[in-house]
């Protein structure tokens, strides 16, 4: 599932590709992927432009010149592709938005969605989300205070969107590895120095993953050499049975809080 780095990478790249470009057409092949009737969806978008592309947690927000916002959540298996009809990959497209000869294709929206939301409805939609990891006010003391008394494991709290916004299965494991902590640890068991390490690791891992384009396996557009660049840089995620890059131990997969999790028992405590 795309997480903060993947969605931030999409946001940055799409801002240079589609902002202020006229929407010339739309096509919806799966009505359940949108929240209004497809003909109305087309009438609302056709002739408009996307004024800006923003991100909140794992959501992308496409603000239209008319004032409405397209809210995208890719969920599990969703990806984006921007290009001509001839360049489109052989994948099922649920929604596409045309910008002249090029289209933004929303692929794999079986669980994900692209909803039209009025300006006044955005704040209630995100009211239950926790702080963004890079918010200036989200300091190490604020991070520690938020996690210290919570039940569950580090894994369950890091992926809980009401605790922190934007982290999922992959980066929760990568953050714990960077901090030298087991994902199954309880927040209450951490010492102050360990909370500090975890906070710094969170910011370091997410920044690096965003810089290298996240782990998505398909380019956003032809010639895109950034998207997916972090996949080969994952230290533990999906590397079961491989040697640890830090200590040479063996990466294992464990079920932590009913979620798959990867770690190195030899150097994570």
TrEMBL record:
It comes from the Bacteria. Its EC number is 3.2.2.23, 4.2.99.18. Its cofactor is Zn(2+). GO terms for molecular function: 8-oxo-7,8-dihydroguanine DNA N-glycosylase activity; class I DNA-(apurinic or apyrimidinic site) endonuclease activity; damaged DNA binding; zinc ion binding. Signal peptide: none annotated. GO terms for biological process: base-excision repair. Residues 2-100 form the Formamidopyrimidine-DNA glycosylase catalytic domain. Belongs to the FPG family. This is Formamidopyrimidine-DNA glycosylase.
């Amino acid at each position: 599932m795309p997480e903060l780095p993947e969605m931030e990478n999409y946001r940055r790249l799409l801002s240079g590709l589609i902002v202020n470009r006229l929407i010339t057409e739309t096509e919806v092949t799966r009505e359940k992927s949108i929240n209004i009737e497809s003909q109305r969806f087309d009438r609302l978008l056709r002739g408009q432009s996307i004024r800006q592309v923003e991100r909140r947690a794992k959501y992308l927000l496409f603000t239209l010149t008319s004032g409405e916002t397209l809210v995208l959540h890719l969920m599990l298996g969703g990806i984006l592709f921007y290009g001509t009809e001839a360049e489109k990959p052989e994948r099922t497209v649920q929604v596409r938005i045309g910008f002249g000869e090029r289209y933004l294709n929303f692929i794999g929206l079986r669980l994900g969605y692209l909803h039209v939301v009025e300006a006044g409805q955005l704040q209630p939609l995100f009211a239950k989300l926790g702080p963004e990891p890079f918010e200036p006010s989200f300091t190490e003391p604020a991070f520690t205070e938020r996690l210290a008394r919570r039940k569950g494991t580090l894994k369950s709290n890091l992926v809980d969107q009401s605790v922190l916004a934007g982290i999922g299965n992959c980066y929760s494991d990568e953050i714990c590895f960077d901090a030298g902590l087991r994902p199954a640890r309880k927040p209450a068991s951490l010492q102050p120095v360990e909370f500090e390490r975890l906070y710094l690791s969170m910011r370091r891992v997410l920044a690096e993953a965003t810089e290298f384009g996240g782990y998505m396996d398909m380019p956003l557009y032809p010639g895109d050499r950034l998207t997916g660049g972090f996949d080969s840089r994952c230290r533990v995620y999906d590397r079961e049975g491989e040697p640890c890059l830090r200590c040479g131990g063996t990466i294992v997969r464990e079920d932590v809080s009913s979620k798959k999790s990867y770690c190195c028992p030899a150097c994570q405590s």
